[in-house]
Amino acid sequence: MPKPALQSSFLATALLAWYPRHHRDLPWRHTRDPYAIWLSEVILQQTRVAQGLPYYERFLAAYPTVQALAAAPEQEVLRLWQGLGYYSRARNMHLTAQQVVQEYDGRFPSTYAELLKLRGVGPYTAAAIASFAFDEPVAVLDGNVYRVLARIFGLHSDIAAPASRKEFQALADQHIPATAPADFNQAIMEFGAIQCTPVKPDCLFCPLQQQCWAFQHGQVAVLPIKSKAKASRVRYFQYFVLRYQEQLYLRERREKDIWQGLYDFALTETTIPEIPPAEVLRHLEALGAVVDTRQVAEPSAAFRHVLSHQKLEARFHPVALAQPLPASTLQDLGLRAYTLAEADALPKPILIANYLTRMY
Ligand code: SF4
């Protein structure tokens, strides 16, 4: 059977009728302030609404304007972001705020094309700000929108392939009404989030059931087509939690790797999950740490953490030092001694923050 012909407005009509009755009441839906909208979009990327909501409120309370965010120290921004993951987003967000202040006099550009020129602002975020704050009829495309369009129109293109974007964007742009672009964009994303969900969509009570190609052809579970991401790499971290009296040694991660700008402990990466005690002592010796074997505690159980392309498995080796670390080690490893209160205030990967909360 041929796929349904595109009609210009059945989708908009159905979604605009569905939205007022079903949408969740979320704070960023009550604002037209491009700064607040941008903040919510950055926070919600790769984050569930329930998890992102308190961060949105915290950021807006700490930095009510783009000027306030731009002027904040990066370390403070990262600390506030702690727990959300993908820390490059926080760093980019901070740089974008500075760009808006320096190059745009503190006012967000008001068109899709201009918004795209901002650092870290891609087509999705630009479309969200342009439509929600400035009523520009440009369609947003996120995972929810891809799914809804693929199912309703029977599109079999791989949504993970960059080439598919054009096809989906053209289709969505064809259906967005010039009179209500913000509501249409909110509606189609919300419809994907709560009605046309990835698993067990609510087809039975769906207002688009009749027009939905996937439903009519029994292909709901098949669409959208998404090729598998590359298998993620497993990394084993051995953390040496060096403590001298009431102070812990931490370092800022400067290398080009995950968690740039965050703080963790002295680290050795290994090819096996656990290392034997003799190996632990050898590593400590190499660090110039003066310990006796009674002061090296058993390693922690594994702390696991999944990133987009990596799976981390960390073990912590607590070590009570008999003397402070030598200056040469501090210099070589970039370590510094912090009191517990100071360590608490540093921006840290959630893995480290969880360990500290559990142990101290
Ligand atoms: S009928 Fe099912 S698959 Fe089709 S749009 Fe509705 S919820 Fe989605």
UniProtKB/TrEMBL annotation:
Q: Which domain of life is it from?
A: Bacteria
The cofactor binding remark recorded in the entry reads: Binds 1 [4Fe-4S] cluster.
Instruction: Write out the catalysed reaction.
Output: Hydrolyzes free adenine bases from 7,8-dihydro-8-oxoguanine:adenine mismatched double-stranded DNA, leaving an apurinic site
Task: Read off the SMART domains from this record.
Answer: ENDO3c
Q: What keywords are annotated for this sequence in UniProt?
A: 4Fe-4S, DNA damage, DNA repair, Glycosidase, Hydrolase, Iron, Iron-sulfur, Metal-binding
Annotated HhH-GPD domain ranges read 43-194
InterPro entries per the UniProt record, alphabetical: A/G_AdeGlyc_MutY, DNA_glycosylase, HhH-GPD_domain, HhH_base_excis_C, HhH_motif, MIG/MutY, MutY_C, NUDIX_hydrolase-like_dom_sf
Record EC number: 3.2.2.31
Q: Which cofactor does it need?
A: [4Fe-4S] cluster
Family, per the entry?
Belongs to the Nth/MutY family.
Q: What is known about what this protein does? A: Adenine glycosylase active on G-A mispairs. MutY also corrects error-prone DNA synthesis past GO lesions which are due to the oxidatively damaged form of guanine: 7,8-dihydro-8-oxoguanine (8-oxo-dGTP).
Q: What is this protein called?
A: Adenine DNA glycosylase
Instruction: Look up and give the organism this protein is from.
Output: Hymenobacter saemangeumensis
